[in-house]
Amino acid sequence: MKRVFCPKCDNQISFDETKYPEGKVLVFVCPQCSAQFKIKLGRKIIKTDSGKEKEVKEPDFTYGYITVIENSFTFKQELPLVLGDNVIGRRNKDTEGVDAAIITADPSMGRKHCVINVRQNKHDELIYTLRDFPSLTGTFIRSTCLGKKEQVRIEEGEIITIGATTFIFHEGPLKEKEQESF
């Protein structure tokens, strides 16, 4: 299943892309606002509101990623992380500054809920830390709520809960290669 968002109201629309050939132009009518828009399957270039074309890049999981696993509001999601701070929160059309936006209707998850920091130490090893943004409902790791300004180191497979949504943290292939060399 593939998901697209209405460019007018940001409503999520799902369809089975395997039923259509690559290069096929599909026309959608948003059930929420009745806006009509087109997409072309298999294309890596999109048109922006100003009419310019922009290349859409494939996700880069080099520095790790999170997998949203318990989210009754939407599909399974895998969101890549980058070096530096990765702000994680609820996707919203007007939200800016969120690096890993989780598509959800979960009202207990903040737009900016927690931060995963990815950095390299002097030995080029990746170090991952988690902290609350701060949020109203807290950030939980291993069923323990992080305190204000508390920052904890996280490793492969950590289970993190924000609001009513749970995700698993995964280290990137770069970190796995470092571990193999020891």
Keyphrases for this structure?
mainly beta, 1 helix, 17 strands
Distance, first to last CA: 40 Å
Helix content: under 10%
Class by SSE composition: mainly beta
| Total DSSP helices | 1
Uncertain parts: none
Physical arrangement of strands within the biggest beta sheet: 8-7-17-16-13-14
Shape: globular
The overall average pLDDT, rounded, is 83
Strand segment count: 17
Main sheet record: 6 strands, antiparallel
- Radius of gyration computed on alpha carbons: 18 Å
Order of helices and strands: EEEEEEEEEEEEEEEEEH
What would you say this structure looks like, in words?
- This protein has 182 residues and is mostly beta strands.
- Helices cover 4% and strands 42% of the residues.
- It contains one helix and 17 strands.
- It has one helix spanning 173-180, and strands spanning 2-5, 12-15, 25-29, 36-40, 45-47, 53-55, 65-70, 77-80, 84-90, 100-102, 114-120, 126-132, 139-141, 144-145, 151-153, 159-162, 165-170.
- The strands form five sheets. Strands 8-7-17-16-13-14 form a six-stranded antiparallel β-sheet, with no helix packed on it. It has a five-stranded mixed β-sheet with strand order 10-9-11-12-15, with no helix packed on it. Strands 1-2 form a two-stranded antiparallel sheet.
- The protein is globular.
- The N and C termini lie far apart (40 Å).
- The model has no long low-confidence stretch (mean pLDDT 83).
What's the layout of helices and strands?
Layout: E1 2-5, E2 12-15, E3 25-29, E4 36-40, E5 45-47, E6 53-55, E7 65-70, E8 77-80, E9 84-90, E10 100-102, E11 114-120, E12 126-132, E13 139-141, E14 144-145, E15 151-153, E16 159-162, E17 165-170, H1 173-180
Parallel strand pairs: 9-10
Antiparallel strand pairs: 1-2, 3-4, 5-6, 7-8, 7-17, 9-11, 11-12, 12-15, 13-14, 13-16, 16-17
